[in-house]
Design a protein that fits this description.
Length: 242
Amino acid sequence: MKSSVVIIAAVVFGAFGVFTAIVACVQLMRQEVPSAIVAMGATVFCLGFVVPAFKTVPGRVMPRVQSDGRGTTFRPDRGIEIPIQVAMAGALVSSVLILVLLPLGRLAIPVPPNMRYALPFTSAFLVAGIAPMLWRNIRRGSMSYLRLTAHGFEMVQGWRPQGADWAFVKDVASEVPNQKAQTPSTIVFVLSDDTVLRFTASAYTPDGTALRDLVHYYWQHPESRDELTDDRAHARLLAALR
């Protein structure tokens, strides 16, 4: 079911990406270079969300893993993360140019009358949202990460790090307790005070299952947590993915 949704989304984004690429070529032939860049940015945005499907649908997702003397850090598959980052950059470039060109009457791409005000508003919203996100991702080296140590876990998926010591973890599950609508590919940490922390792992392993199982293992087996200080945790994950 999930693969079908991903395939349909990829087809829709792909079709729109082809359309905007044609628009970019037309504008380039007319020597409307800024407008061509706007359309090409939209193409990059669309295709940036198509490329990850070639990883997620066949289940070829593999995280980047780095170990040191204190713990092991897991980061998203580059084949998923880089296209998404590029897609965001494409949307940012297009949005900035629209904000400059449209008020000056220099946007050669036809804009329907009912979009004359909505388009710059949407572009401003995208610039305000995407620019700090890209800067944040560049500063910390990835969109998100999950770090496991002998003492506990730390995760970043958004602006603020979250985490807890293993002693405060009551459960590691795939679903939030007593919640009807569940988010697929999620690692759910239930803490002793009933706080629920969610980590989406679809960009790490197929459906996030192998990474969730690994977290569950180290939660349940404190005697094995020294594996997190070298490459053994990575080897255990690779064995689960075979």
